[in-house]
Amino acid sequence: MFSDLTDQLDALGARLREALASAGDHAALEGVRVRFLGRSGEITQVRRAIGTLSPAERPAAGKAINDAVAQFEAELESRSHELDARALEGELALAIDVTFPGIAPATGSLHPIRRAMEDACRYFERHGFAVVLGPEIETEYYNFDALNIPPDHPAREGLDSFYLRPGLLLRTHTSPMQVRTMQAHPPPIAIVVPGKCYRRDAIDARHSPMFHQIEGLLVAPGIHLGHLKGVLEGLFREVFGPKQAVRFRPSFFPFVEPGAEVDTTCPGCGGEGCKTCGGSGWIEIGGSGMVHPDVLRESGYDPAGVTGWAFGVGIERIAMVRQDIDDIRVLFENDPRVLEQLA
Ligand code: PHE
């Protein structure tokens, strides 16, 4: 009868499980397999019993047996894996070698922006400049008025700047620290100001509403543009390499006179012309000029007694050129996999 068969298979399964549990190695396991599933094993006896069933019952009986065999084989297999895992554990337990190096913890690294900023600051500190920080929330007075930027200047519109309330905004450049420093200290002044700046630019490959600058200011009797060129050349040699040159292009900023855009030799091609510099051999990296007499006066200095220069250089620009990154967003998305590569 069919129910007898089911009982037999259940009983067989129970015995098989017992045998599996006490099989301690692969040889014992093979013994179990032969005993239960081998050609003259117990399952064969059960199969023979099919002959005693009515023809109508046979197909179902055959299927029940095959299903049971598949199940038994799976159990043998999983016991075999269990034995492997246990053997491995045993070996490892014996193999503890206290002189083995440990698993090294993942180490972090400085962000490329931080690195560019620190390299620049190190250069200026070595040359006697003080590194000072200014507020990121600025008054309209320091961000614009004191820098000779008139009230009707387009840069003052909310379109370009983040205003917190009338008269108060996120600084659009690091230049406000020029007047803040000069008002607080008599000449001579030699400072750099690294830090974040904010402009209402749409985000794209070259623009981010938050970016970093390093401002420089040197004011003393007899300071001229030649000093600026020498200092900037030294800076670019520090951050890019020993062959950098500096090129000034006349430009206008209300707080300097004369004013110049600052270019340096494209580090990507050494000046030959490549994709990074658009074939020109130069990359634009900041603005500069001689501090405007109005700015000196606003700071309480006498333009007849002292002169000075100032510059503002883009930190992202340095980091991107150094790391050969062509999309500024890479610097701010902070994907750890990318940062690891840039380390
Ligand atoms: N503040 C200017 C800017 O952000 C750069 C600059 C700094 C120009 C100092 C001249 C002198 O564009």
- Identify the overall geometry: rod-shaped
Broad structural category: alpha+beta
Q: Sheet with the most strands?
A: 7 strands, mixed
- The tally of strands reads 10
Q: List the secondary-structure elements in sequence, H or E.
A: HHHHHEEHEEHEEHEEEHEHHH
- Helical stretch tally: 12
Q: What is the CATH superfamily label of the largest domain? A: Bira Bifunctional Protein, Domain 2
| β-sheet strand percentage | 15-25%
> How large, in whole angstroms, is the Cα Rg?
39 Å
Hetero compounds: phenylalanine
Commentary on this structure:
This protein has helices at 2-22, 26-37, 42-48, 58-94, 112-126, 140-143, 176-184, 225-239, 293-298, 315-323, 329-333, 336-342, and strands at residues 130-131, 137-139, 163-165, 168-170, 189-198, 210-220, 246-251, 256-265, 282-291, 307-314. With 343 residues, the chain is α+β, with helices and mostly antiparallel strands. It has a seven-stranded mixed β-sheet, sandwiched between helices. Strands 2-4-3 form a three-stranded antiparallel β-sheet. Helix 1 runs parallel beside helix 4 (58-94), helix 2 runs antiparallel to helix 4 and helix 5 (112-126) packs across helix 8 (225-239). It is rod-shaped. Bound molecules: phenylalanine. Phenylalanine (PHE) binds next to strand 8, strand 9 and strand 10.
